[in-house]
Design a protein that fits this description.
- The structure is a homodimer.
- By secondary structure, chain A is an alpha/beta fold.
- The first copy, chain A, folds into 3 domains: 9-55, 434 Repressor (Amino-terminal Domain), CATH 1.10.260; 67-166 and 300-326, Rossmann fold (3-Layer(aba) Sandwich); 168-298 and 331-343, 3-Layer(aba) Sandwich (Rossmann fold), CATH 3.40.50.
- Chain A is built from 12 helices and 12 strands.
- Chain A has a 6-stranded parallel sheet with strand order 2-1-3-4-5-11, sandwiched between helices.
- In chain A, strand 6 (187-190), helix 9 and strand 7 form a beta-alpha-beta unit.
- In chain A, helix 1 crosses helix 2.
- Chain A is elongated, with a radius of gyration of 27 Å.
- Mean pLDDT of chain A is 93; it is low at 343-347.
- Chain A binds a DNA duplex through residues 8-10, 18-22, 24-25, 28, 34-37, 40, 55-65.
DNA sequence: TTGTAAGCGTTATCAT
DNA sequence: ATGATAACGCTTACAA
């Protein structure tokens, strides 16, 4: 194999009988500042181009103590919800000439711990962290060392780190109001991962909306333990074998809804007729189902962009003014909820 | 703000009145090799732990000329197909203790060029590249400098770089055979991005399958110019307004199918009854549509894993034996294709 | 207008 | 069994 002889400042300098400093200065656009002759400038540039010189960012980073790199820690990049966030994070970071090191934690706190350590070891300047979310103590030192970080989606109640998330409470509250206004009172809640903030907020919104309409919540109607589709399927089958009076399902993720829908189809229940369904996280296909599914959409792209923006604010300012952002959700009405009765109930307003 | 005073080998060495070399050796598990006293070993380890020492990988990489990093270049990470590949790449890389720098090229060759340059500048040891795929000359120097790289999904005919992709030709061929065996002869092909290898191979499979059954292909039935859903919608509307006799649609991506389905619904055509549809790229929701959609599934996870494996083979061996892999697709029969006639046609076998 | 030299944090080579 | 030193490729005072 041909010897891999890479081009460095040294190489260029030698060929032109110059010092590395001069070459470095030219290539960093400091020619004017150092009054480098235009002849030299041209020669350096030409040679750099000719040799296809690529500055070694490693050396640069080491010297400058600046890596132009952010860490992105995500529970499951193959989940479209996370993938959309990842995309906007990458794009926004690149706008600032930063690169992204990606870690998929596979929904494991253990891998999350390892990932954060790894990324810090690689001297990333900051972290965009979508935590698994059920534990938080492994993140306390990020706080005490005030290492630049922005938490996204699932935040940690007992940790005071800046975050950006959807207004899950409000989104759920509004959704349940919508159901109630369509005269549903027996509404099951197919929840995601208990103990994670989006889940807790949504469940709280569900409960509060019911109470605001003087409907006594039945805690037994809250079922499930993960954001995946299997749970949606299992819980729906189980539930409908017990509680036949349920008229609507509120699924806390689109995958849960997918599972639920399969169960309903198997049970020969017509969606939007025999039973209504409504779910969190819009995805393109939901508009194409039969019937199209009514959803609570999150602003994924905005979430990613904002996270990066907040991170850069931390990197720039000495004064880290902790700023948390809750993005509004967007209710998308389609055809999966039946209006059981034509007269509307009283209008509703959320508590928080 | 508290001064950011990071712990280095130096710090530990000073505190223990040792040299950095000794500390380095202990922390790199070379204690035995250098016969370091167990007392020293213990002291070093304790201090490292106490100070929460994280070795600076930048310095390490620079010195060792080994970054333990791969570059992943992807046209659109928010596309579930790509996201699934990305995930398996990340997981497989991590198994080898490698990190991933992610670049989303937004389907732009220009950004692809920039990304490759950037990644090489960051001294990644190898590249997993999912090219935009319509141009290739900007990648020739990867070949001439034999920089370790594996191309995934879309490969470049005039470039001799190792790749892993699905057997798109065979997948399409089989799918069209299936349609023909269900007595369809007027089959439209809703294609993706022309000029990209998966598209060309699939179209070729489509044509060959028709010819193998003595059906003269009508080139006017091949429509479309991108993998997105808008194309699927537009082309389907257009097509059905012109060619009413078409009985089946073969969509070359699931997004195209989604668009097509919307068009069909709007036209009041019942899928699997009035018209049949079949598409590439299985996604979870396709099983839940009404009717469930028959698809040609690709082994995304395997593709990512294999790509990393091929890349590591390159990194290990001096002898770069170029190895290309075509993964078989998997035909998933559901309910979206109607059998127009009960007697079957003759069995089919592909040409390649 | 350009060169010299120190240093970023690590590891490898050669001493002792 | 441990230490001193050079080097990885780059930037930046400080010289000249």
């Amino acid at each position: 194999m041909a010897k891999k002889t890479l081009t460095t400042l040294q190489t260029i300098a030698e060929r032109l009988h110059l010092s590395v400093s001069t070459v470095s200065r030219v290539l960093n656009g400091k020619s004017n500042q150092y009054r480098i002759s235009s002849r030299t400038q041209q020669a350096v540039r030409d040679m750099a181009c000719q040799l296809d010189f690529k500055p070694n960012q490693l050396a640069r980073s080491l010297r400058l103590r600046k890596t132009q790199t952010l860490g992105l820690v995500i529970p499951d990049i193959s989940n479209p919800f996370f993938a959309q966030i990842a995309r906007s994070v990458e794009i926004e970071a690149r706008r600032h000439r930063y690169s992204i090191i990606l870690c998929d934690t596979q929904e494991s706190t253990e891998l999350e711990i390892e990932s954060v350590r790894l990324l810090r070891s690689r001297e990333v300047e900051g972290l965009i962290l979508l935590p698994v979310g059920q534990q938080s103590k492994h993140l306390t030192n990020l706080q005490t060392e005030d290492f630049p970080v922005v938490i996204v989606d699932r935040f940690l109640p007992d940790l005071d780190l800046p975050y950006v998330a959807s207004n899950n409470y409000r989104g759920a509250y509004d959704a349940v109001c919508y159901l109630v206004n369509h005269s549903h009172t027996k509404i099951a809640c197919l929840q995601g991962l208990p103990g994670t903030s989006p889940n807790e907020r949504r469940v709280r919104g569900y409960l509060d909306a019911l109470q605001a309409h003087n409907i006594a919540p039945d805690l037994d109607l809250i079922r499930g333990d993960s954001y995946g589709s299997q749970t949606g399927y299992d819980q729906t089958r189980q539930l409908l074998s017990e509680k036949v009076s349920v008229t609507a399902l509120f699924a806390l993720s689109n995958l849960i809804a997918l599972g639920a829908i399969r169960a309903l189809v198997e049970l020969n229940l017509r969606i939007g007729e025999d039973i209504s369904i409504l779910c969190f996280d819009d995805q393109p296909y939901l508009a194409y189902m039969d019937p199209p599914i009514t959803t609570v959409d999150q602003q994924n792209t905005e979430m990613g962009r904002l996270a990066v923006r907040l991170l850069f604010e931390q990197l720039a300012d000495e004064t880290i003014e902790k700023k948390n952002v809750l993005l509004p959700t967007k209710f998308i009405e389609r055809k999966s909820v039946k209006n059981l009765c034509l007269e509307r109930r009283n209008k509703c307003t959320p508590k928080h």
